[in-house]
Amino acid sequence: MTTLAMLTYDDALERFEPVIGLETHVELGTATKMFCGCPTEFGAEPNTQVCPVCLALPGALPVANKAAIEATIRIGLALNCSIATWCRFARKNYFYPDMPKNFQISQYDEPLCVDGWLDVEVDGETVRVEIERVHLEEDTGKTLHVGGATGRIHGATESLVDYNRAGIPLVEIVTKPVVGTGGKAPLVAKAYVTELRDVIRSLGVSDVRMEQGSMRCDVNTSLSKPGAEWGTRTETKNVNSLRSVERAVRSEIIRQANVLEAGGKITQETRHFHEDTGETTSGRSKETATDYRYFPEPDLVPLAPDPAWVAELKAALPEPPRVHRKRLQDAWGLADAEMQAIVNAGAVELIEATVAAGTSADGARKWWLGELARRANEAGVELGAMNVTPAQVAQLQQLVDEGKLNDKLARTVLEGVLAGEGDPAAVMAARGLEVVSDTGALEKAVDEAIAANPAIADKIRSGKVEAAGVLIGAVMKTTRGQADAKTVRELIIARLG
Amino acid sequence: MSDVTRATAAELGRLLADGEVSAEEVTRAHLDRIAAVDDKVHAFLHVDNEGAIEKARKIDQARADKEQLGPLAGVPIAIKDVIATKGVPTTCASKILEGWRPPYDATLMERINGAGMVMLGKTNMDEFAMGSSTEYSAYGPTNNPWDLGRIPGGSGGGSAAALAAYEAPLSIGTDTGGSIRQPGAVTGTVGAKPTYGGTSRYGLVAFSSSLDTPGPCARTVEDTALLHAVIAGHDPRDSTSIDAPVPDVVAAAKLGATGDLTGVKLGLVKEFSGEGAEPGVMAAFRDAVDALVKLGAEVVEVSCPHFLYALPAYYLIAPSECSSNLARFDGVRYGLRVGDDGNRSLEEVMSLTREAGFGAEVKRRIIIGTYALSSGYYDAYYGQAQKVRTLITRDFTAAFEQVDVLVSPTTPFVAFPFGSRTADPYQMYLADLYTIPTNLYGGPAISVPCGLSEGLPVGFQIMAPTLADDRMYRVGAALESALGTLTPPDLEV
Amino acid sequence: MAAISREEVAHLARLSRLAVTDEELDRFAGQLDVILQSVARVGEVAADDIPPTSHSVPLTNVLREDVVVPGLGPDEALSGAPDPAEQRFRVPRILEEEA
Ligand SMILES: [Mg+2]
Ligand SMILES: [Zn+2]
């Protein structure tokens, strides 16, 4: 029996051309749900944010949230889409317990926004990702699977449903197929989702947090021989971080290439991405997929956004993140590579806010890309999730600039801030970490050090100034590091010089 | 007043306002009547004795305290069991909702309660309002007070029979394809379907969302108008509710009652001029038209060529919407659950629950609707039906350029015996032949008694343009002034 | 020719989550066939240039302000539940292919 050698990623790309497509769902940050007045807070007690409408009690009716329509139009405009002058909601019919009506109010052949694009940067090159549609729909409830080993649906004996999330407005953004990116396809996918996240965040319509599920991504992948028709695509669900977007595309390219190379066929199916293994496994086959029986939602009337209103929304759009970043880069005087490092670290907004709080760009960058990036990496969390605000970082740097903290003390103060002990100034005071600038106390410490080290003192007196280091060390020890080394040195020279 | 159950709502309102009778007395008289005759009629699925007495006492107290009260304060009313009533069982005459007590009130219940009216209970109907005879109620049919062996119409047979049996002076119905008007016709009572969007659907358990319209039922046109005025008007909780002033239907009914229709043009729908209708029904209808002419009305024959396609279009649109609306009855959040033995999957339990909880007619319509919406059939069925809807609306628009209202018999036949149309569902559907076009168009229509055929009531239908609900009340009241109301034979108590 | 077969009715019943019996399948197939043949007449009159009507009232842009309205408490929300557990709605195990 012969075993076929596994194709590597590079082998795969020598033989096949990948085509990818992305469907992204974004939960809007409106105060209330899409079709009822229930609040949308994350993490509330189960079934406390529900009403007859979002529980689908018999007789209840939906009324669309104006803020959600506005947010969707703004997303469409930011993605360079045309906004429909007339469109409708449609019912997507299928049975699932987290969907209380057993249909989802969505949009079908008449989406609110169509035909846009988003430029993304990959390795210094601009790739234009075309947007097919942006539409509005409602989220489902959350299901807790009980009795299985892992809390997953597999092996569970029963499930418990919480409808707090049911009916939260969800914007679906669908790209056209992205072709011709070759081996960069995984990076393009990641760059697109990143840029999309930044665009939506800049609009202030969602907190777009993948780890909390307010932004969720499905990735379509297919392979074809160069010049041949596109292959069968798979849809990978459960891709819940930026890193996973890249990994999911990469692993699906390798998997499909190996299937095809072995003479197999790709099944059109849903696949699930697993963060732990970085691989996808087969889900539901599309062949047995249900017929959704879409039809216009009779309980809601059509939407006909007033072109004047749309023009107003367009005029009020914020600067696109790419343009904004370029402006910051110029203002901060950074080279492309330096700016890229900030972008990659997800620190643009953090540094911007820190600078806005009164710090130099260099000072802000030093903290966010240095000590804080290191700690975030150690803790395995995103930089923005660290327990410190840009204002606190600004204050910390200010204390350094004023000479009240040296670098070492500042790091200790930061530790206190991260531990929740308060603002840097408060931590400094509480822990007594301020640089000793009281010359009386310092002079006393210097005199004691000279007295305790007569031989060293003689060396300095004889002109061997470099020996002062020993005395400085002794002073720092007695002041528990809180002295300013430069001042100590000056005092020693003044006494013995 | 010897027997308040025979009084009209308008009369009761005056007696109550004058202190001649208390709301509690009126309520007790009706509850007593229900207790005496409902074994025979079975108009009610639930009678709220305590709730009704309590509400009546509150109104009496309010009146004693000189609070400002509306014209129907203290007047009892029966509510079709498809309307959500907070804390009071709401079953839609289905096993799947047996015992469900809604945690909220329908908008029209808020208005009825706000008007100081006293709800007596919930009335029987065809399951989920699908049917024309109440034979599809999961809790047994309602019997027509004119002949207990015959159907009271449907789906709102309970709301109509309760009026004819003097169990209530007013009731609420819902009309998707004729479910207010056809029961009104066959029980000799009045039933009005308001303009779609003129009365709120919030809290009306949906059958076919684009057609369902709640409306008033009574024994006189004036009473119907009084109730119409209470429940109509914009509701921000219903996206399809019209934000426009409600026409003054009470004034229109009073105007019509003067018996003068000079200058009013009636359109006789050519396509509904007899084919398929019983001869006795057509005879009573023609006599009624003659009576209106005597009051000064002018009669014109108008052609509405697409009305004959209304029935097939309706039997695609309504089941399609129903297949989706009824998907929520799955045994997860409320209602029946069957077969959950700890072993079966959710899909199996849902399927067993829906199989056990729905009756045959509901299942038929769900299956037809699922079929009509399926990819591959959508264009041929649902899509085409939506186009027919456009054509029917055009017919109405053209007709109303020539005439003020359109008239026809309400239904082709008088009350039929139980079981005579259940074997072939399509024969049952024909009962709604004349009422359905209005639902597809969205305009208002009323059924007013116009005499008897073979000793059973015949209904006269008046259809008006969208938002011109007042016109049908004027013509209806004029007809009533000419022909009088009908009194059913006494139920032997 | 029959408009609808027994197998099609069985498929539609499955889609609609109705565990119909064999006897019902036979009966429904016949009845639905009659109904569908009758309603198929809608195809006779509706030409291509006729726009469909989905709503009888010509309303657009009926929207609500983004303001919180009090809803139901968890007790009310779960008051009709056939099988509540841990303030949630309990359901039997969900088949994976449905996910
Ligand atoms: Mg979606
Ligand atoms: Zn809600």
TrEMBL record, chain A:
Residues 349-496 form the Asn/Gln amidotransferase domain. Keywords: ATP-binding, Ligase, Nucleotide-binding, Protein biosynthesis. The keyword Nucleotide-binding applies. InterPro entries: Asn/Gln-tRNA_amidoTrfase_suB/E, Asn/Gln-tRNA_Trfase_suB/E_cat, Asn/Gln_amidotransferase, Asn/Gln_tRNA_amidoTrase-B-like, GatB, GatB_Yqey_C_2, Gln-tRNA_amidoTrfase_suB_CS, Gln_synth/guanido_kin_cat_dom. It is an enzyme of class 6 (ligase). The keyword Magnesium does not apply. Heterotrimer of A, B and C subunits. Allows the formation of correctly charged Asn-tRNA(Asn) or Gln-tRNA(Gln) through the transamidation of misacylated Asp-tRNA(Asn) or Glu-tRNA(Gln) in organisms which lack either or both of asparaginyl-tRNA or glutaminyl-tRNA synthetases. The reaction takes place in the presence of glutamine and ATP through an activated phospho-Asp-tRNA(Asn) or phospho-Glu-tRNA(Gln). This is Aspartyl/glutamyl-tRNA(Asn/Gln) amidotransferase subunit B. It comes from Luedemannella flava. The gene is gatB.
TrEMBL record, chain B:
Residues 25-471 form the Amidase domain. Belongs to the amidase family. GatA subfamily. It catalyses: L-glutamyl-tRNA(Gln) + L-glutamine + ATP + H2O = L-glutaminyl-tRNA(Gln) + L-glutamate + ADP + phosphate + H(+). This is Glutamyl-tRNA(Gln) amidotransferase subunit A. Pfam families: Amidase (PF01425). InterPro entries: Amidase, Amidase_CS, Amidase_dom, AS_sf, GatA. The active site is at K80, S155, S179. NCBIfam families: gatA. Coiled coil: none annotated. The gene is gatA. PROSITE patterns: AMIDASES. Its EC number is 6.3.5.7. Keywords: ATP-binding, Ligase, Nucleotide-binding, Protein biosynthesis. Allows the formation of correctly charged Gln-tRNA(Gln) through the transamidation of misacylated Glu-tRNA(Gln) in organisms which lack glutaminyl-tRNA synthetase. The reaction takes place in the presence of glutamine and ATP through an activated gamma-phospho-Glu-tRNA(Gln). Heterotrimer of A, B and C subunits.
Automatic annotation (TrEMBL), chain C:
The keyword Iron does not apply. The keyword Cell division does not apply. InterPro entries: Asp/Glu-ADT_sf_sub_c, GatC. It is an enzyme of class 6 (ligase). It catalyses: L-glutamyl-tRNA(Gln) + L-glutamine + ATP + H2O = L-glutaminyl-tRNA(Gln) + L-glutamate + ADP + phosphate + H(+); L-aspartyl-tRNA(Asn) + L-glutamine + ATP + H2O = L-asparaginyl-tRNA(Asn) + L-glutamate + ADP + phosphate + 2 H(+). It comes from the Bacteria. Its EC number is 6.3.5.-. Residues 85-99 have a biased composition (Basic and acidic residues). It holds the Pfam family GatC. Keywords: ATP-binding, Ligase, Nucleotide-binding, Protein biosynthesis. Residues 74-99 are annotated as: Disordered. Allows the formation of correctly charged Asn-tRNA(Asn) or Gln-tRNA(Gln) through the transamidation of misacylated Asp-tRNA(Asn) or Glu-tRNA(Gln) in organisms which lack either or both of asparaginyl-tRNA or glutaminyl-tRNA synthetases. The reaction takes place in the presence of glutamine and ATP through an activated phospho-Asp-tRNA(Asn) or phospho-Glu-tRNA(Gln). Heterotrimer of A, B and C subunits. Belongs to the GatC family. This is Aspartyl/glutamyl-tRNA(Asn/Gln) amidotransferase subunit C. It comes from Luedemannella flava. The gene is gatC.
